[in-house]
Automatic annotation (TrEMBL):
It comes from the Bacteria. One of its GO terms (cellular component) is plasma membrane. The chain crosses the membrane at residues 6-33, 54-73, 79-99, 111-129, 135-153. The keyword Transmembrane applies. PANTHER family: UPF0756 MEMBRANE PROTEIN YEAL (PTHR38452). InterPro entries: UPF0756_TM. Keywords: Cell membrane, Membrane, Transmembrane, Transmembrane helix. This is UPF0756 membrane protein Btus_1784. Signal peptide: none annotated. It is a multi-pass membrane protein. The keyword Transmembrane applies. Belongs to the UPF0756 family.
Length: 155
């Protein structure tokens, strides 16, 4: 068995043990592609998979606006309630941090391995939801900044 196939089988087992259906399904899908000799689609999946995932996430978030679950008055309350204002600020901070994460990944692409491992551990052991490596990179960038700041202060 090749290394990539072995890694996928290990991820499937980890997903099953950790009851992470997303991890198990993703690893099974990639293993099927690999065993079917359809590796030519891997670069496209790597390049566009995140965009596709974010597209479906955005669709899921927008459905309540379209199906009438949320009304115009609900939207108006977002701008005057403390939780709504916090959500707006959270969106602003998240997009800024995502930019910092992208910068960090451009500087050191090998960090993606750590992001993937951390995401897998978070899925399996903390029952987390993988929303994407960019947000993980954003948090990593923030932690790197804090680490550098603490090192500077200790001098």
């Amino acid at each position: 068995m090749l290394t990539g196939e072995l890694v996928l089988v290990v991820l499937i087992v980890i997903g099953l043990i950790g009851r992470s259906h997303m991890l198990t399904t993703a690893a099974c899908f990639l293993l099927i592609l690999r065993l079917s000799h359809l590796e030519r689609y891997f670069p496209t999946l790597e390049r566009r998979g995140l965009e596709l995932g974010l597209l479906f996430l955005m669709i899921a978030v927008l459905v309540p606006l379209v199906d009438g679950t949320l009304t115009v008055s609900d939207l108006a309350r977002v701008f005057i309630s403390p939780a709504g204002i916090a959500a707006i600020i959270g969106g602003l901070v998240a997009t800024y941090l995502n930019g910092q994460g992208l910068h960090l990944l451009r500087q050191d692409p090998s960090l993606m391995i750590g992001l993937v491992l951390g995401s897998i551990f978070g899925i399996v052991f903390l029952r987390g939801i993988p929303v994407g490596p960019l947000m993980a990179a954003a948090i990593a960038a923030m932690l790197v900044e804090i680490w550098q700041w603490l090192r500077f202060l200790s001098r």
